[in-house]
Write a structure and sequence with these properties.
The protein is of the alpha+beta class and 212 residues long. It is built from 10 helices and 5 strands. The longest helix has 18 residues.
């Protein structure tokens, strides 16, 4: 199973990029639209890239189709982990799942936690019924992820990391892979800007703006 691809991006297609490894092999890797701007910048600068990948076989043997190996790629391991949860929803294949990634996975996770149907139904291929299925399947699971083991004990003097900020911390640390201290700082700055009563989706939007 191919878990990572490292090399240089040599071509960007409609729904995929081509990565040339140090050995000279070129791998076409499906990517979400959210990742294209960053990958385009890396290609323009001729900077190396490492994609965390999910390797699968596409096709239906029962229907007489050949199985074709495919790769989907993500900027971080946390994004890939979210994607693997996402495509467990009935009716979401790896291909349709990656096509739905018009927003960064952490923003989709935030919409699921907030049960934000408006955001989910704007994603490619997701109608109201599918958005409802995604929320039903994943909202509680994502909420239960919480903080990584040991975080609470390591920083007991930071009560703001719990309570109303717990969901934001779970996404930024557990899904996006930020350091706990960085996530706390960003959430604090977002709440200063928005006010203490701001809802989690608004806080996350402000965090993403601050990180640009």
């Amino acid at each position: 199973m191919i878990r990572r691809i490292s090399g240089e991006i040599v071509e960007i297609l409609d729904e995929s990029v081509v990565v040339r490894t140090g050995a000279g092999l070129c791998y076409e890797t499906q990517v979400g639209a959210y990742a294209i701007p960053e990958l385009q910048a890396l290609m323009d600068a001729r900077e190396p890239v490492e994609l965390h990948t999910h390797h699968y076989l596409e096709g239906n043997v029962a229907a007489g189709q050949s199985l074709v190996p495919r790769l989907t790629g993500f900027l971080t391991a946390a994004e890939r982990d979210f994607f693997l949860r996402f495509i467990k929803v009935p009716g979401l294949s790896p291909r349709s799942g990656v096509r739905a990634m018009g927003l960064p996975p952490e923003r989709i996770a935030a919409a699921i936690l907030a049960r934000d149907m408006g955001t989910l139904t704007k994603l490619q291929g997701l109608g109201k019924k599918k958005a409802e299925q995604i929320i039903s399947k994943l909202a509680d699971e994502l909420a239960e992820l919480g903080l990584p083991a040991g975080v609470e004990d390591a920083r007991p003097e930071q009560p703001e990391a719990m309570g109303p900020n717990a969901e934001a911390m779970a996404i930024l640390v557990g899904q996006l892979g930020l350091r706990t201290t960085e996530a706390e700082d960003l959430i604090g700055r977002a709440r200063v800007s928005l006010g203490p009563e701001a809802e989690i989706p608004a806080v996350l939007e402000e965090v993403f703006r601050l990180r640009r």
